[in-house]
Amino acid sequence: MEPLHSLAGKVAVITGANAGLGYQTAIQLARAGATVVMACRSVERGGRAQGQLQAEVPAARTVLMQLDVSEPASIAAFGREFNNRFERLDLLVNNAGIVGIPLARNSVGHELQLATNYLGAFALTGTLLPFCSGDGPVRIVNVGSLSHRFAKLDLDDINWETTPYGPMRAYARSKLALLSFTMELNRRLFETDSNISALAAHPGFAATEIGKDNNLMNPQNPLGKWFNSKMEALIPSAAEAARSILFAACDESAQGGEYYGPGGWLEIGGEPDRARLNKTARDCAVGKRLWTLSEALTGASYLSAI
Ligand SMILES: NC(=O)c1ccc[n+]([C@@H]2O[C@H](COP(=O)([O-])OP(=O)(O)OC[C@H]3O[C@@H](n4cnc5c(N)ncnc54)[C@H](OP(=O)(O)O)[C@@H]3O)[C@@H](O)[C@H]2O)c1
Description:
The longest helix has 25 residues, at 167-191. The chain starts with 10 loop residues before the first strand and ends in an 8-residue tail after the last helix. It is globular, with a radius of gyration of 18 Å. Helix 2 links the parallel strand 2 and strand 3 (61-66). The chain has one domain (11-296): 3-Layer(aba) Sandwich (Rossmann fold). The chain has 306 residues and is of the alpha/beta class. 39% of the residues lie in helices and 13% in strands. The structure holds NADP nicotinamide-adenine-dinucleotide phosphate (NAP). NADP nicotinamide-adenine-dinucleotide phosphate binds at residues 15-16, 18-22, 41-42, 45, 67-70, 95-99, 116, 143, 145, 202-203, 205-206, 208-210.
């Protein structure tokens, strides 16, 4: 891909930077001169990825910090460590994600896809917002998914307490929540005349490890294996698919409150462009209600009075 404009002196945090799209985003930002905080849940996997990145880009400035986005205590610890080590944040990419797992919950009872793909991003954003108040423009980029378009956001039972759980429905819903949050965050920031904008991007399809241990995404029966082997050739590489995330993060034409993705057939691949957004994500009443709910669930409270 074309080199990004210089990001020298900028600090970027990427969650899930040790693999797939997060790693590809990290390496491009590092190439452009940013200090890249690789926020990874496993120090071992993160260390390996950091070593690989430094080998590919010897001049890269990377910092590995432990973060499990599904755990509120880990987010709080990350915030304290970030405070000890940095004074500013110019870019946050909420990328970490999981897909299609059987029902599981984090240590405080939140359904794990919701906790990882959405609530963690909500809480981390609030934790890091105080570092974003410098004079230059700051972006918060949330990584969505095509699947959100087919989701329904049930705000009466967002945590799957009573509704029968569906692994892919829960994934799609967590991404719709993330996109509704992105739009509401951008509205709230705009109303405070902030230098920060919030926007989102999805990769289309990307050849990464996501869902590889998962029978739904990666069936082990002969038909499923055959189908996946045929599909593999059509799926863009992680480097290719990360372009829409990098576009949202760095391109001068990308704007707060927008959603970007590959502009080709069905938004599966192609040049970054505006992407189709489920209209629920632009519904202000839903955005406000989700915000209040998210504050109650996570205990993270910010931009609340707006
Ligand atoms: N690949 C696609 O086709 C596709 C399509 C649409 C959207 N997306 C989205 O793109 C994002 C990146 O996915 P990917 O395809 O690059 O998948 P990936 O290769 O599996 O990478 C996911 C990253 O997220 C990290 N992660 C998972 N749970 C975490 C947690 N609790 N705390 C911190 N980090 C955590 C993983 O860390 P570990 O190594 O420790 O597991 C890994 O670094 C996700 O949000 C995904 O939903 C992907």
